[in-house]
Amino acid sequence: MPRKKSAISTTSQEPPEIPAGAHEEGKVAFQVRFDAAIHKKLKDAAEESGLSLNQLIQGICNACAENLHMGEPKFRQEGHVTSNPVKKCVYFGDTGRMYDDEELYIDRQTSGINNVPLAQKANIWFSLDYSDRRFKTY
Length: 138
Description:
single chain, 28% helix
């Protein structure tokens, strides 16, 4: 059985042409295929929440894009996360961070508390590991 031709060319050096009228100012047409079960879950969630399916997927993608980190999350004892470079791995969420000495000094002066934490804690939502290892999920 012949394969369907992909809507997105992966062999060409040039991006595929977008048909006239296929996008609005600042918008790009983007075609993806979902498993039927995932599509149903998203469609049902959109209907129940009063959103269009497009609004729901754009919101999800925007939140993920804003919190996307390359590599594998490496949890530090202080509570923040750094990235361990691993090809075909990404993770999503807030990595937290270490406070610098000046921030700690200001926080201690304004709060009157000497035991201000050294780090803002991380909150990792999930990771995608498409490497050959595939051993960690969140």
